[in-house]
Amino acid sequence: MKNKNAKLAVLSVALLGAHPSVIASTIHDSNRTHNAGKFNLYLRAIHIDTRIKNDLIEKDFGGFPTGDRLGGTALGIIADYNSGYWQDSIGFDTSLYGAAQIDARPEDRDLLDDTSGDNRSFAKLGQAYVKLRRGGENWTAGLQVGRGRFDAGTVVTSDTRAVPASLQGARGQLLVEGLDIGPLPGVLFIDGAYINGASPRDREDFDKILSESGAGIDTIKTYSIGYDAKLFALKYSRGVAKDFNKNSSYGLTLRAPIGERGGAILESYYYDLRAAGNVWDRDWAAGDAGFDDKASWLNINLGLEIDNWSGGISYSNTKAELTNGKLGYAYFDHGDNVDGSLEAWTRSGSDFNNDGEETWQVAAKYDFKGNSLGGVPLDGFNFTALFKRGKFDATNPFTGAGSDIQENEVGYLLNYRFDEPDYQGLSVGVLFTRYWINEDFVALVSAQPENVVSGKDLRVYLDYAF
C-alpha cells in the first residue's frame, strides 16, 4: 500500500466529465465553502482502516514494526473567512484548522502527526494571506501573499485527511480570453508560485521544506502556462526545488463532442523529472532517492461519456533508474512535506510508478442523476469502479535472479454530495481498494517499500459545510 512519504491519494479516479473534460470522483473539497464576504464553517469526519499483508516479512522478519492494521478515525474543522475586495482590488482571507483524534493506531496513515507516538490533536492558522486582483476587458490577474492552499505549476496542496495542508509564499495567476482560433474560443492562462515553507495535513507547525532524508530545501519556484481552445488544449509546467529537483510536465488534450449526449477525450501527459543538486545527492547516499539523476513518466488516456455513463482506459510507462541497490520510482514531489501535481489518470491509489513499469487501467462511473429509488431521488449519488495492472522487472535478493513482477489494484467509490445553491451541504463517500503483488520480496528492494505491500483499504468520509 502507499507509503506516507509518497503521499497516498486514493480518492480520485480520472474519467471523462461534461463538455467533455476530465473529472475526478472526489469525496472531499474544502473549497466548496468559499463564499466571498462570508464566514464559512466546514466539518469532516474521516475513518481509515488499512490491512497489510506480506508473508515473507511476517515469516522471516517478525512482521511489520507497526503491525498489520493501520489507520484510525479523526474529526476535522475548517473555519474560513473569505473577504470581498476593497476598491475591487484588495482583500484578506484567513482560515483556522483543527483536528481531533477519535481513534488512532501506531501508524495512523497521516491522520495526525505520530512522530511523538501519541497521535495528538492540533489546531493551527491554516491560511492568512492578502489577495490582490486587477482586470480589463478580456483579462484578469490575481496575487496571493502569505499562507494558503496554493496550487500552481508542479505543486498541489494536499486535502485528503482531516484538514488540508498549507504552504507559505506567494501565488499569482493571469487569464487572457479572446485569443480565438476561428470559431474556437481561445483562453491563455499562466500561474506561478514561490514557496518557502509548508505545514503538512497531519500537523500544526510550519516548517522548512524538507527532502525525504530530512535535509532542508530553501525554496520552490514553479509556474505553468496553458492554452485552451475547447477542442484542444496545451499545457506546460515547470518547478524547481533549490538544490533538490527540477520537474517538468507537458500536456496535450483533444476533445470531441458525441451529439448532444456526451463526448470523447484523448489526453496525454509526459513528466520529465531531474535531480538538481547536493540535497538530492544526500538523499541518494541515504537511500531515500527515487532515481539517480533523471526519470520520466508517460501517461496516455482515452475517455468517453454518454448520458450518465463515463469511462476511461489509461496507459502509463515509467523509467526511473536507481543504482544504489534499490528499485527506483518516479518521484514527482518537491519534498517530503510538499506534494507534486500529477494529472496522470493512473494515479489512483498506489501510483504504479516503478522503474520500467508499464501500467493499464480501466475505469467506469455512473451518475445516478435523474434516477430514483422508491420515489426518492438519487441526484447527487455516483459510483466509480476501476481495475489497474502494472508489470515490471525486479531482482530477487535471495536468488539473484530477475523476476517478472505484476501488481494489481481494484477500487470502488460510492459518493453522495448534496449542493444547495450557495454550495453548502452534505458529502459522504465510501472508498474500498484492494492491492496485491505477486512477489513479496519487492518490499525489501523497493525505494518505496510500503507502496508494494499487499493490502486492503477502507475509507469513509463525511463532510458538512454549514
Automatic annotation (TrEMBL):
- What Gene3D superfamilies does UniProt report for this protein, alphabetically? Porin
Q: Which GO terms describe its molecular function?
A: porin activity
What keywords are annotated for this sequence in UniProt? Signal, Transport
Q: Please state which protein family the record places this protein in.
A: Belongs to the outer membrane porin (Opr) (TC 1.B.25) family.
Q: Where is the signal peptide?
A: 1-24
Would you tell me the protein name for this molecule? Outer membrane porin, OprD family
Q: Name one GO cellular component term.
A: membrane
Naturally occurring in which organism (per UniProt): Pseudomonas fluorescens
Presence of the UniProt keyword Transport in the record: yes
Extract the InterPro entries matched here.
OM_porin_bac, Porin_dom_sf
Record's keyword annotation contains Signal: yes
